[in-house]
């Protein structure tokens, strides 16, 4: 039986890894989505 908190943690880790990969692939892409530009330092 899976605990809800474990499932939530897995989802959060997956989202974090996806954002890290996206920011690594598109670090200075002017066509990057707005949320990627907000993640990158000014």
Chart the SSEs and their pairings.
Blueprint (H helix, E strand, L loop, with lengths): L3 H22 L8 H6 L3
* Order of H and E elements: HH
Secondary-structure-based class equals mainly alpha
How many extended strands? 0
Helical percentage: 55-70%
Which residues form runs of ≥5 with pLDDT under 50? Answer: none
Distance between termini? Answer: 45 Å
> How many domains comprise the coordinates?
1
Helical run tally: 2
Biggest β-sheet description:
none
Oligomer state of the chains in this structure: single chain
Question: How much is the average pLDDT?
Answer: 76
- Fraction of residues in β-strands: under 5%
Spatial shape:
elongated
Radius of gyration, in Å, reads: 14 Å
Protein name: Peptide ABC transporter permease
Organism: Thermus scotoductus
Brief sketch in words of this structure:
This protein is mainly α and 42 residues long. The chain has 2 helices and no strands.
Task: Describe, in plain words, how this protein is organized in 3D.
- The chain has 42 residues and is mainly alpha-helical.
- It has one domain (4-39).
- It is built from two helices and no strands.
- The protein has helices at 4-25, 34-39.
- The radius of gyration is 14 Å and the shape is elongated.
- It starts with a helix and ends with a helix.
- The mean pLDDT is 76.
Q: What tags apply to this protein structure?
A:
single chain, 42 residues, mainly alpha, 2 helices, Peptide ABC transporter permease
């Amino acid at each position: 039986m899976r605990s809800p908190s474990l499932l939530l943690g897995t989802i959060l880790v997956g989202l974090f890894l996806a954002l890290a990969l996206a920011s690594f692939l598109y670090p200075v892409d002017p066509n990057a989505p707005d949320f990627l530009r907000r993640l990158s330092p000014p």
